[in-house]
């Protein structure tokens, strides 16, 4: 993996974002509950407990028994390789109505399988299939749930995942433009890693170990140095300050201008930078109405 910026996130942090949506009333109604009608049946469903994300492929047996968005079993006996994860719904509550009469409620865990990829410089998440424990269901109800309810759950809950995409980043830090394109994403060790590169950058190699924080942003030191240098260069030739001191007999006025910034370095603390500055001073004296330039000098620091 090569990077200028890497964003890392573990399962718990990712899950917290989904759980936050689950507890919001407006989002819950939109994504986590619904009604499906197909005469003579009707079904109300609700994801009772907050979902949790598990980074890693689905169980092969559950994958084979899962359904895609059309209510059919996914193609292939094994799930796609690479960057797959599971959105685990601890309890899906289903109430079926037949002829307008409610049947005994059915509850069970649900898993939605999805895959993370990079396309066109942005991160995308594609829902693949949904699995539900049908073992306690009546065979007649099972056909309706598999053909109509699970596709609805897949579409709505999967919409949460599908809506999580991270586009190429184009923004400005002050007047310094920053352009980053996402180049790689990996799932492993319970962590999601998203790597981005600046335009025309080869990036830095991945470290031997990643930070252990639940979420982190790691910046390539060379790239950070270039950003600091670019930001500092915006002040070149600009006045740093002016002053005017005087009384009835005379005055001294002057200005300081930044001429150059050299040797930008990122210190051991990556939030700190040092640089050498060339500053020119222009001092002028007015004595009893006469004006003269006292000095023009440069100071380096």
Short structural description:
The chain is an alpha+beta fold and 301 residues long.
Write the layout of secondary structure elements.
Elements: E1 2-3, E2 5-10, H1 11-23, H2 25-31, E3 33-38, E4 41-47, E5 52-55, H3 60-64, E6 84-98, E7 101-102, E8 106-119, E9 122-132, H4 139-162, E10 169-173, E11 176-188, E12 191-198, E13 204-205, E14 215-219, H5 221-233, E15 239-246, E16 250-266, E17 273-287, E18 290-300
Antiparallel strand pairs: 1-13, 2-12, 2-14, 3-4, 4-6, 5-6, 6-7, 6-8, 8-9, 10-11, 11-12, 15-16, 16-17, 17-18
Notes on the protein architecture:
The protein has 301 residues and is of the alpha+beta class. It has 2 domains: 10-162, no CATH class; 235-301. Helix content is 21%, strand content 50%. It is built from 5 helices and 18 strands. The protein has helices at residues 11-23, 25-31, 60-64, 139-162, 221-233; strands at residues 2-3, 5-10, 33-38, 41-47, 52-55, 84-98, 101-102, 106-119, 122-132, 169-173, 176-188, 191-198, 204-205, 215-219, 239-246, 250-266, 273-287, 290-300. Strands 3, 4, 5, 6, 7, 8 and 9 form a 7-stranded antiparallel β-sheet that branches. Strands 10-11-12-2-14 form a 5-stranded antiparallel β-sheet. Strand 6 and strand 7 (101-102) form a beta hairpin. The longest helix has 24 residues, at 139-162. The two termini are 38 Å apart.
| 3D shape | elongated
Q: Rg, please? A: 31 Å
Tell me the β content: over 45%
Structural class: alpha+beta
Would you tell me the overall average pLDDT?
Answer: 74
Tally the helices: what do you get? 5
Low-confidence stretches: 245-267, 270-301
Q: Mind summarizing the main beta sheet?
A: 7 strands, antiparallel
Ends apart, CA distance between termini: 38 Å
Number of DSSP strand runs: 18
Order of helices and strands: EEHHEEEHEEEEHEEEEEHEEEE
| Overall domain count | 2
């Amino acid at each position: 993996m090569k990077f200028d910026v890497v964003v890392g996130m573990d399962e718990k942090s990712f899950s917290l974002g989904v759980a936050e949506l689950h507890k919001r009333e407006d989002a819950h109604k939109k994504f986590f509950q619904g009604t499906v009608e197909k005469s003579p049946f009707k079904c109300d469903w609700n994801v009772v407990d907050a979902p949790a994300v598990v980074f890693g492929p689905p169980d092969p047996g559950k994958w084979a028994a899962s359904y895609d968005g059309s209510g059919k079993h996914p193609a292939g006996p094994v799930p796609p390789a690479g960057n797959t994860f599971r959105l685990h719904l601890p309890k899906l509550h289903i109430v079926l109505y037949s002829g307008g009469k409610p049947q005994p409620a059915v509850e069970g865990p649900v898993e939605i399988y999805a895959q993370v990829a990079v396309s066109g410089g942005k991160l995308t998440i594609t829902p693949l299939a949904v699995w539900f424990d049908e073992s306690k269901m009546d065979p007649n109800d099972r056909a309706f749930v598999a053909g109509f309810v699970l596709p609805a759950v897949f579409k709505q809950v999967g919409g949460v995942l599908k809506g999580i995409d991270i586009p190429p980043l184009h923004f400005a830090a002050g007047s310094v433009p920053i352009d980053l394109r996402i180049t790689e994403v990996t799932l492993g060790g319970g962590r999601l890693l998203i790597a981005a590169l600046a335009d025309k950058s080869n990036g830095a190699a991945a470290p031997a170990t990643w930070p252990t924080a639940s979420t982190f942003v790691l910046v390539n030191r060379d790239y950070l140095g270039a950003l600091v240098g670019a930001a500092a260069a915006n002040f070149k030739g600009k006045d740093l300050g002016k002053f005017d001191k005087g009384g009835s007999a005379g005055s001294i006025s002057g200005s300081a201008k930044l001429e150059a910034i050299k040797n930008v370095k990122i210190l051991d603390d990556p939030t700190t930078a040092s640089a050498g500055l060339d500053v020119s001073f222009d001092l002028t004296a007015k004595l009893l109405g006469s004006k003269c330039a006292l000095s023009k000098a440069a100071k380096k620091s």
